[in-house]
Amino acid sequence: MLSAPDKALLVKLFYMNEESATIALRKFRVQKNAKIGKGPLTPAGLLKFVKRFEETGKLEDRARAGRPCLKEARAPCIAVEMEAIASEAASGTNSAREAARRLGLPPSSVRNILRRILQLYPYKLQSCHELLPTDTAQKEAFAKWAFSKMEQDPTWVFNILWTYEAHFLFHGDVNNHNCPIWATSNPREYTQKPLHSPKGTAWCGFTGSFIIGPFSLKRSAQSKWMDNGNGKCSALSNASAGDCRVMFNSTRRSGKTESSRRSRYLWPPRSPDLTPADFWLWGYLKSRVYLSGPSSLSELKDAIRREVSSIHPDVLHSTVAGFVTRLECLLPCGGGHVV
User: Fold this and answer.
1) pTM for the whole thing?
2) Which of 44, 86, 120, 269 stands the most exposed, by the fewest C-beta atoms within 10 Å?
């Protein structure tokens, strides 16, 4: 449905182009960046619209005779019912199916009215780490400090060594929302996995130009992560003494910073939305590692090493640039969540 400004623009283009409906529509699509041949009217339809405008002097359509559209008549009731359902839920969520049940309407009709008449669209809740009252101020202060460092040296952020570890379950995981099976009938497919799946823990560190690892970790008797004989400490020492100017080993629960030699700053607590290892590395690696379907822990470790070694430096550079973008989002929201 055309808005009033779009209708006015069409009439204007029609008269500016020697009353050619074809040229007017072509220029309208160019200005609106619309696909060639896709609406909003045919040349014949535009001529009828212009003729009606000349007769009435109005851009609005003539009032139609007969009873009103059933969808438009039902829209207010559906809007009220959706608000009532949202008020009953602690999280403010609502359900088109529940509204249809309460009103005695087909769910497909309710969804159609929500989208086309009420211009509403479904969104999913996002889970974020809970922030304490002091956390937002620390995150905002950290962003300002980081920008001051980048003003002094634009390459500084690309020389940070981001480090963290993650668990890789042997049986992987299935995202039910992203794995549909389109079929004419229910295939009754299931995936089975044990209650406690064997797992390996990998450590990685990366900058905007290179990646270190992966290194396999195991817990010592003192419950501290230890290198599993792969030389993590040696590689980390060489990297931090060379190209890396500061190392952030950011934790999820509390602020913690380990510095290479020249810089020390407290990492804002509960900030996985800022940590490249959390918002990119581990999710990317797991999506790649489980594609090969490793059949043993050794194959799982080989797949992790293979995928880490295949990461191109351009991808690392782009990821660190994404960290800068997230810092920019911190300032307008006062240090709140970056999603």
Assistant:
1) 0.56
2) 44
